Amino acid sequence: MSKHMLVLDTCCPQCGSRLTEGTRVVLDAFIRKSHREGEMRLSAIFGDYSMETELEVAEGELVEFRCPRCEASIMMPVTCKLCGAPMASLNITAGGYIEFCTRRGCKGHALGGVGDLDQMMSMMNKLMDTPYD
Ligand SMILES: [Zn+2]
Ligand SMILES: [Zn+2]
Questions:
Q1: How far apart are CA 36 and CA 124, in angstroms?
Q2: Which ligand is located closest to the Cα atom of residue 90?
Q3: How far is the CA of 26 from the centre of ligand 1 (A)?
Q4: Which ligand number lies closest to the CA of residue 85?
Q5: How far is the CA of 90 from the centre of ligand 1 (A)?
Q6: Which of 11, 36, 65, 104 sees the fewest Cβ atoms within 10 Å?
Q7: Low-confidence ranges of the chain (pLDDT < 50)
């Protein structure tokens, strides 16, 4: 294993633009409750659910995510196993996709935080084969 953290190289499922910048995934966010829009930067590190934003998002609030390039919604018709909130999905450049919970503070918010282990392992293997730094 390398000592690097595993950074997920994500891209938009609609337009294919790369959305990972450094260790962050930069997305457009819309807070349904307050009708505020802004940028939200999720951690691209596998299993890390931290994020940064200038928006005011209370714990437990729901956020809708869009691609900042093509403005397509990345919301999925599936719900979080932990809290029942809608999930969003991003493609992984190396292949496959990842889903994450859109509720602030939910552990399912982590990229790769919830998901079936077999699927995660095969994705990890794919990522490990990818020569990037
Ligand atoms: Zn896009
Ligand atoms: Zn959740």
A1: 35
A2: 1
A3: 11
A4: 2
A5: 10
A6: 36
A7: 1-2, 114, 132-133
